[in-house]
Amino acid sequence: MELRQLTKHIFYYPHQTETDRPMLAYIKGDKSSLAIDAGNSSDHVSEFYQALEAKNYKLPDLTIITHWHWDHTFGMHKVNGLTIANNTTDQILQMEKEKIKDEVYIKALKSENPFLAKEFSDGKTINIVSSDIQFKNELSLSLGNLTAKIFRITSPHSLDSNLIYIPEEKVLFLGDATSEDFENDGYMDQDKLKSLTAVIEQIDCKFCMLGHASPLQKDELVDYLKSIMS
Ligand SMILES: [Zn+2]
After folding, report:
1. Which CATH number fits the domain that encloses residue 170?
2. Residue 88 is part of which domain span?
3. DSSP bridge partners of 4
4. Is the pTM here over 0.70, yes or no?
5. Residues 6+ apart with CB under 8 A from 219
6. Which chain residues have CB less than 5 Å from ligand 1, an ion?
């Protein structure tokens, strides 16, 4: 698969449904480059990097993690440069790193999640690492004529969700923040959904990028979120 261009300095490697791989993004500042999410495995990272190399783009200097779920973090051990996560994401990864040492836990993960089982078939090992850089509530990265504004938000999907906003290109990355909580039988917390939608509405963005969808216009996403509110 090829890297796709969204705006002048923002590219993305599309999501892949076969093993639930999320979209990975590449923010190309004049000085540094930032990837969004680490992908679900070392194979996923390798494919993404091949797509970057095909365009002669340097590998990311930094990779920001949107939230702790496996499909966004199990490639972290393979990324180039440094990884960034909020302190809650990092704490969860520290715990998962310990849990994964137990074969029984790996078997349980695979039996609960056919996508994970498929991605890690053929004896591929799961390697979980914590992040290199942690922040609490917000972090701003100056990438060279391009800024990444990273901030935590309340999300119905996970307790550790970040949004990443690139004001110069009017693009907002949301990870899976607008989805229901799959760890809790797909429960959609309406209050959290409403507060998140209000945050999105206030941000001056043209595109909204979700982890497992094609690029959306802001209005498309906001209209959809309002349609599922009760
Ligand atoms: Zn998720």
Report:
1. 3.60.15.10
2. 4-227
3. 12
4. yes
5. none
6. 69, 176
- At 95-123, the pLDDT tens digits run 999 999 999 999 999 999 999 999 999 88
Distance 204 CA to ligand 1 centre (A): 24
**Residue 108: both structure tokens together:** 């349980």
Distance 73 CA to ligand 1 centre (A): 10
The CA 157 to ligand 1 mean position distance, Å, reads 7
Alpha helix (H) residue ranges in the chain: 42-54, 70-73, 87-99, 103-112, 114-119, 190-202, 218-227
Ligand 1 geometric centre to CA of 30 (Å): 30
> DSSP letter string over 177-206?
TTS-BGGGTTB--HHHHHHHHHHHHHS--S
- Total domains in the chain come to 1
Amino acid letter, 93: L
